[in-house]
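Follow-up to my post from last week.
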Amino acid sequence: MTRLAFAALALLPVLALAWLLDPRELLGVSVWAKPIKFAAGFAVYLLSLGAFATFIDPAWRKTGAFRWPVIAGSAAIVLEQAIITLQSARGVGSHFNAATAFDAALYAAMGAGSLALLALAPVVALGLARHPGRRPIDDGMRDAIVIGLWMTGVLTLATAGTMAVLGSHRFGAADLRVPHFLATHSMHAVPLIVLALSPFHVLRRQGVLAVAAIYGVGVVAVFVQALSGNPFPVPISWLSHG
Amino acid sequence: MSLDHLFSAASFLAMAGWLALLASPFTPKWSNRIAAWIVPSLIAVVYTALMLVHFSGADGDFSSLDGVARLFASRPVLLAGWLHYLAFDLALGAWEVRDGSRRKLSFWWVLPCLPATFLFGPAGFLMYLAVRTLVPRRQPAMAAA
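User reply:
Got it. Predicted complex:
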């Protein structure tokens, strides 16, 4: 997974140059904005999962129960990035694009792929929870990572699934990518908060659950606010566009 | 950044790569790193970006000579085609140097193949094939004529 992350990073100079050279725009931004965001995002996702996986028992990591989901999820990431990049090269949208049978088929493939790649989070969570390795880690930190990964899985499914059903990231004046972003980063936020608190108070499972609940409620609140059709109260211009 | 700027930058890089190959008897490892990997990769990044941006908008295809002519009517795609030559001719030249070294061919025999490969790619390749096949390996003692 870590090596695939480096491959995603290696794609960035090519995409950045394409962004510099291409005048074409979609929905008010360069056609290359999406491939760049997704390549960077996939790199972060894979690097995180790879780092978390080092705390899983290496013997269990060699079993099919781990390897098959990782292979499927990794292949799905390659497919997603390829489709998003191809559609941008063609100057058309990738998500929600059903303009032609070809576009619709690609979008359907993306849907299937997104489930496979999202499944990587709970798989790593299960590995961490049930098959811990010998690399030292605080119980509280491990719980934070496990819970964060599960939250990423569930909340991303909810936010992304809603966008898929609506056929757009827009809902009225709201941009559903904001709660989606917060949802996907649960796997980072919960461990980071627990880590930041650790010089003052080392949290155990109950404390971690409390942190996770607060973050989760926050994500749901932002999601509900977006579903009211109103824009996110804080201006984040690079996330939402006119 | 205009197409002409990119053309100049790529020409400069390719030239640097070929010069590195000329130095290969003295610095074989670095000459190979530069000519086989670094310069071709840099040119390849520019090529890929150009094709991602311009290929779908270009008329033409690879199925006939007329199709190719239409492709190259697009100036960015033409630049990409030229970068393709620059990158691959250089990578091929680096291979010729490595292969000659592995076969213990005197560098004097490989040397003329390099400008031939630089200017007329496949012709230089044929020249190197001939050299590789016909020139005897360096013998430690005098060989029979």
